[in-house]
Amino acid sequence: MYQPARASQSEFVPVRTLQYHVRRWNGEASPASASPSSPSSPSRPPLVLMHGWMDVGASYQFVVDALSQAFFAGRTVIAPDWRGFGLSRLPAPCDHYVFADYLADLDHLLDHYAPGQPVDLVGHSMGGNVCMAYAGVRPARIRRLVNLEGFGLPATTPDQAPRRYAQWMDEIRALERGEKSLKAYDSADGVAQRLIKTNPRLSADKAAWLARQWAAPDAQGRWRILGDAAHKITSSQIYRVEEALALYDGITAPTLAVEASDDSMGLWWKDRYDLPEYHARLRHVRDCRTAVVQDAGHMLHHDQPGAVAALIESFLSTPE
Predict the structure, then answer these.
(1) Angstrom distance (rounded) from CA 74 to CA 30
(2) What does the pLDDT read at residue 319?
(3) Residue 36 pLDDT more than 50?
(4) How many helices and strands (H and E) does the chain possess?
(5) pLDDT tens by residue, 279-303
(6) What is the pairing mode between strands 215-217 and 223-225?
(7) In terms of DSSP H, where are the helices of the chain?
(8) How is residue 73 annotated by DSSP?
């Protein structure tokens, strides 16, 4: 099984109505980095890593392990579990999740870990979408922004709204009937095999370690994914591209948009939404550059953690 090179602390932070679970890695400053002007100074901005849909903060362990010691020293790195994922459990059951809640949650988390201080923010997939939106709403809170495969969604038209509301209500009924439940597994090894099936690039040792972060045994000994089945309910709101672009227009932080070489967009959306359209949307971000991670799929932080770490490190270390 994979053995993390850098140990994390697990802690819970009160955020709105729930206790948020957060992984925290503390880079100890060396004696030579005591000066506030040193690149290894403890005053360096926190690095905040936000995971994607049906994932957990621990998913970034491989990237954290791949960061250089010079970059890591003196820096706090945190990776929360979004509400309803991992160990960030709601105090009472719910039957759907609202995208705007992620923005408010992130706002509270940053106030806790970096009051009055801009942070370096990284988001993957759904987390990337949240981070892009948040950076447009609270631009002063973000020093640098890295978006890992957070593409947004295909454009919609207002006439799709009635059908979407009906779909949302129908799916809530299906959840109530138990038709949206997440699959349980006989063992952690079963979870690991599921992870490898979804992502064949994931090595067996990493899958074995991730399985124990991604799932846990229930009272009957069955391993269940640490995610609320209500996350499978589609949003009641159609995706409004004009709103997303207005948020992109508000981003002032230098931004790095990272893609995997496998072209997740083509695999998911076919002719409904593609990379050229995504790149056109990115032109609304005033300071945005792109990068591609080779030999990687959507879970690029698992497939090529060294390459992802190097991109993050280089981008965040570039002089202002």
Answers:
(1) 8
(2) 78
(3) no
(4) 12, 11
(5) 999 999 999 999 999 999 999 999 9
(6) antiparallel
(7) 61-66, 69-72, 99-113, 126-137, 161-176, 188-198, 204-214, 241-249, 264-269, 275-282, 300-303, 305-317
(8) T
